[in-house]
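Students often ask why we bother encoding 3D structure as a string. The short answer is that it lets us treat folding as translation between two languages. Here is a chain of 111 residues written in the first language.
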Amino acid sequence: MYLTFDKENNILIAHMAGELDHHSSEEVRNKIDDRIERCKIEKLIMDFSNVTFMDSSGIGVVIGRYKKLSIKKGIVCIANVKESVRRVFELSGMFKIINVYSNIDEAIKAI
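And here it is in the second language, the structure alphabet:
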């Protein structure tokens, strides 16, 4: 999993590429949490445009960031979800609590 960050209007955008699974989830979790703490972030957009596979460990990463920022009255959303990954989100029921947007610009405007 390759991870890069952008910051726009005090919103952290985490761009992920590769597989978000049990092999990569801890590293992704640690890097995002580190950036949230260092930059005092309260709004996070997770960009799934280059995520090719996700399992339940990936759901754990997303829900963990959601819980972490909810404590601070923050927001987590996801954007650019491919169909194969979208199915995992749908089956898990995540879309009931986390908003999904078709692209980054739409997510920035919404949050």
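Translate back mentally: The chain is about 45% helix and 35% strand. Keep this in mind for the problem set.
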